[in-house]
Amino acid sequence: MRKLMTSVAAAALLMTGTVTVAHAAESVEVLHWWTSGGEAAALEVLKKDLESKGISWVDMPVAGGGGTEAMTVLRARVTGGNPPTAVQMLGFDILDWAKEGSLGNLDAVANKEGWDNVVPTALQKFSKYDGHWIAAPVNVHSTNWVWINKEALDKAGGKAPANWDELIVLLDNFKKQGITPIAHGGQPWQDATIFDAVVLSLGNDFYKKAFIDLDPDTLGSPKMKEAFDRMTKLRSYVDDNFSGRDWNLASGMVIENKAGLQFMGDWAKGEFLKAKKVPGKDFVCIRFPGTQGSVTFNSDQFAMFKVSADKIPAQMQMASSIESPTFQSAFNVVKGSVPARTDVPDTAFDDCGKKAIKDLAEANKNGTLMGSMAHGHANPAAVKNAIYDVVTREFNGDLSSDDAVKELASAVAAAK
Fold first, then answer.
1. Is the four-CA dihedral 40, 194, 385, 393 of positive or negative sign?
2. Tell me: the pLDDT tens digits for 312-345?
3. Who has the most CB within 10 Å: 131, 165, 220, 410?
4. How far is it, in rounded angstroms, from Cα 416 to Cα 413?
5. Cα(15)–Cα(13) distance, rounded to whole angstroms?
6. Distance of alpha carbon 283 from alpha carbon 403, whole angstroms
7. Span 119-155, pLDDT tens digits
């Protein structure tokens, strides 16, 4: 069936051309969790692009920044034999669905447009399965960012922290200013995002051995206890009402000068831009202290599910539109991420975007570009969720640092 559907799509693309295919198509149904202001604005770029090609967009948003709720909805749809056309998905989740045989084949459009030559190899690990393209990468997000309110930073002396000790001094200064030092949302994936950066700040080799190699000795090491100790320290700078707060609401605290900074991936920039804030003037973007030169990444991709033959042309057009250099620039300028292609110029990007593109290229060249544990690009979902559980319990004070180290090693071993 997969070969039949691919043949139909290939024939349609080659015989009728892009424009005709677009007008022959009816719609794409898209499941995603891009529901915040900045995310919705970025998604609108893709919607309008497809509508201009005669393809209507059936929106299926499921709130929840980490995508957990969306995956629950997706499972029900696939089990019921009615999968969406495309689903926003991350990392190993894509490969899991591919192994189940649920995803379609994008080779016809990918080969025609030369995706192999422009999509970074690190992303192709999740975009392809068994040698075939199964997903279209939209962007590259990097997760080890800090977003700082410029006014609060200026009151603290204007110097962005370059190491752990300087970070603590800054947080203490924010507290003296009467604002919440760290804007944070108490959700497991947000806790893990901070932990990701903390572990990375203790060394590239340490991060790789812990989260990519899943080395038992590293997971249970004194250095891992130091990482948990740092999490305990950071917890002391979070306000009492953080539990359950969505990430974009935490971003709003920094935007409104109610908090000093936020540790969050570069999708947070979209919230600042939507609020008409300017990099360098209203907010400052830096790598988590101690991690400059290294990048942990995740990549939003649209996994394309097996659909009936009559729906394939629209699905193929959506994939082609996603990988268009013009779309990649327009979308990522709004989203806060960087293009999933290496040939898109940085001219349209702001200072934080230019830094992100430069940092990504540097890390890719130096071998310090690594998949984010917190965002499903370092290890499979079962392992990620096991780490989430330990990190959140420790961050909330339910585990001591010593106990967290022991539980981390045993939880990962059980989940592997």
1. negative
2. 999 999 999 999 999 999 989 888 899 999 889 9
3. 220
4. 5
5. 6
6. 38
7. 988 889 999 999 999 999 999 999 999 999 999 999 9
